[in-house]
Structures are given as structure tokens and as C-alpha cells.
Amino acid sequence: MATVAEVRDEPGQPPALTSLSLAEAAQQAHSKEQIITPFDVSGGFDEEGKPKAIDYDKLVDTFGSQRINEPLLERFEKVTGHKPHRMLRRGLVFSHRDLNLILDKYEKGIPFFLYTGRGPSSDSMHVGHTIPFEFTKYLQDVFDVPLIIMLTDDEKFFHTPKLSLKDVYKFTLQNAMDIIAVGFDMKKTFIFADTEFVDGGFASAFNTNVREMGKRTTINQIRGTFGFNDSNNIAEFNFPAMQSATAFATSFPFIFGSDPKKVAKVPCLIPCAIDQDPYFRQCRDNAPRMGYLKPAIIHAVFLPSLRGSGSKMSASDVDSSIFLSDTDNQIKKKVGKAFSGGQDTAELHREIGGRTAVDVPFQYLTFFMEDDEELERIRVAYEKGEMQSGEMKMACTKELQAYVSGFRERRKAVTEEVRKEFMRPRQLIFKGMPGEKERQDARGRRMRILEEELERLKKED
């Protein structure tokens, strides 16, 4: 078995990444260095013990990804014919792996699909959760492509001792309805929960890819990338293969068709937060060995905690987050207590101005306010001292109340029947979808699978 030092790194990725124990680093709660892993997010601390903002430039260098620069944004607009989303324009979606190749294929008319997901750890999502989904919806609308959303209830169960399978499945169904309320196109979107899908009659190809990925991933690779040790359960070691399998179109023949050679050439673009990158570095490393294309990835920054930009919103910390279930009054109270970049007195603030770089209400406006000119007006006024902290918080409160209110209205329309349809394995409608004969053959295979499952159940009775 290979040692950690022998594990091959992806080109452009520093060797330290595969030998660095991410989870062990995450345990250093008071580390001065920033920690960005799937399990912990912190900007670190300065010499005085005060939390520091997350350094995304450093992450690009450390993770070996590429910055999304102005020429790439110009090409995006030229190829798609759409103005880049505000998160792209403002550098909130800031890093990528092979986005340029996705644009190449789109320009040539080669279809691709989107894949994103969520680990359901609570029954109520916060606005930091919806931001990546809103951006993913924008990509689906712009490119007119199918989308697969993976709800990793099994991973949350494996990794969180206090949660039962019943708990996480309940969270999954509620989260699915919240995600649907973002506004995804049902005809082009399939949502699945791991515990439900992989044990059903449609996951044969998916499970094959899990096994193929698992065979090519060593224990040392998982230890090195995620920092697992002998105290981690065996299910945690296997889960990265599960998360990787969704990045391959061959896992979903009922969507993309059953010709493995043809479907293996369908590219995947994964919009995600930067802390998920370790999972997909493993996936990209092994994909060519399985005869597949490496999935492209596009990274977003974190929506800061109400406490400051040194950490992200957390569902486990009610006071750090704006939940989609919060009332207007709760939002107002929370924003009123948010970390401010204003000065200690109104007089001093008018004299030297506020600090938008650390002001949480202003940071939220960069995520949620669509109007670039109004956002710039607010920034200039605040930094000149012409706008006080209270006024900044009022502007932020208004924007967040409107955002959450709009979500609540859409959420009312998401019934249990709508959720079930989104989560039903079925043929999606998109440009480049399989032909009629191939779809009929696929339906026939699915019918045989269901008939075999019914026969098995009858025998058990």
C-alpha cells in the first residue's frame, strides 16, 4: 500500500496537500493559521488572538486552483450571451478548475451537466446555504443544462454521532423543499437523497461507479486528504467515492442514456464552496483511470458569520446565521448585532469613515444586492463617513428581509407532491438528451428492474 508521501498529486497542486492532515488541522481550534476543510472553516487568529478574515488568495495558491479573472468573465459573457451573475462580477465566485474547458465545449454545442449538493444537518437552511443554489440556478438557466442535486444524508449520519438516520432523513426532505423553492426547473432537475436512491432500483450504474472509484482510492489517500485516523468509522472512509460517483453521467442512465462510451464523454461542472474541494481533487485524480473526464469545478466564497468574516454562517450557531425561517423582526435584531466596520463614535466615523472590508452588513449587501451602482454608492458613502453604521445595518436589513420574504412565498408553493416529482428518477428534458429509441430501451430496463424488485418483495412476504 502506498504511503502518504507516495500519493501522486494533481498537476499544479502542491505536494503538501496530500500529506496534510486536514481534520487534524481542524482540531487546532486556536491555530493562528487559517483552516479550510469540509469539517471546519476559520480564517485563523492574529497575534492578539483576534479572528482574521479568510484569505482567499492564499487558498487559491494552497489548493492549486485558478483565479476567475476578467478575461475569463469576458469570455463567459461572449459565449453565453448573458451578463455574469453578481457573484461572478464581484469575485464571490472566485476560483475554478477547467471552467475554460466547459466554455470550449459549450461553444461547440457539446452538452454537459451541473452537479451540486447539500449535507442536511438541520431542518432549516440559512441564507448562506441558498446563495450557492441561487448561483447554480443561474448557471442552469444560462446554459440550459440538466442539474443533479445530491443530498448527502448518509454522510451527515456517518460523521455526526448525535444524529440518527431518522433525523437526517427528516432534515433531507425539508431541505429538499427549501432547495426547490430557489426556483429550479423541474423538467431539468433531479434531486436525490443518498439513503433513498442508492437502495432503490435505479442506482445500479451509480453503485458501479462507487465501487470503481472505491477500488482506485487508497486508505492512505483518504487519510492524507481528510486527516482520518483509526477512530473514524469505515463508512466515512468510503463516502468520498459516493460523492465522486455523482460527477459521472454514466451513474444516471435514466437521464443521459445507456451507451457507456457516449455518456462517459458528457462533462460535469460542479459549483460548490471552496471547502468541498478536497472531495473533488480525489475525484479528478481518479476519473481518467476510470475512463472519464475530470469534472470541472467552480468555487464560491463563504457567506460570513454575523460575528465576523473570520468564519462562515453555521446552522449549529443560531446567533451566527440568518435562517430562511426567521421573521422580519428576527432578521432586524440579528443584523443589529452583526459585526460592524464602523468607528467607536459617530464623530470619529464621520472623520475617518467605516471599513467595508470587515463590515458584515456591507458584506451581506455584496451577496444580495443586485444593483452594482447602488452598492458602490453605499460603499463610497460608508468609507467617507457620510453613512453611519446604523444606516448600513438598515440597508442590509431591508435587503435580507426582502430576500427571505421572497423565499417564504415560493416555499408555500412547494408541496409534498412537487418534492416527490423532483426526487423521482426520470428522464430530464434538455438539449442533447437521448433519442426516443434509447429512452424506450432505458424505460424497458427500468421496468424489468422494478418487476424484479417486486418479485423479491413477494418472496420475502
Task: Please provide a written account of the structure.
The protein has 461 residues and is α/β, with parallel strands linked by helices. The chain has a seven-stranded mixed sheet, with helices on both faces. The longest helix is centred in the C-terminal third of the chain and has 25 residues. The radius of gyration is 23 Å and the shape is globular.
Secondary structure layout plus pairing:
Layout lengths: L15 H4 L2 H5 L8 E2 L4 E2 L13 H8 L2 E2 L2 H11 L5 H4 L3 E5 L1 H9 L5 E6 L8 H17 L3 E5 L1 H7 L5 H16 L8 E5 H4 L6 H13 L2 H8 L7 H12 L7 H4 L3 H4 L4 E6 L3 H10 L9 E5 L3 E2 L2 E5 L15 H9 L9 H7 L7 H9 L3 H12 L5 H24 L3 H7 L13 H25 L1
Parallel strand pairs: 5-6, 5-8, 6-7, 8-9
Antiparallel strand pairs: 1-2, 3-4, 4-9, 10-11
The helix/strand class is alpha/beta
- Give the overall silhouette: globular
The residue-averaged pLDDT reads 88
Percentage of residues in helical conformation: 40-55%
Output the number of helix runs.
23
Over all CA atoms, what is the radius of gyration?
23 Å
In the predicted model, the low-confidence regions spanning at least 5 consecutive residues are 1-29
Major beta-sheet overview: 7 strands, mixed
Q: Order of strands across the biggest sheet?
A: 3-4-9-8-5-6-7
Q: What's the multimeric state?
A: single chain
Estimated share of beta-strand residues: 5-15%
* End-to-end Cα distance: 45 Å
Question: What's the count of strands?
Answer: 11
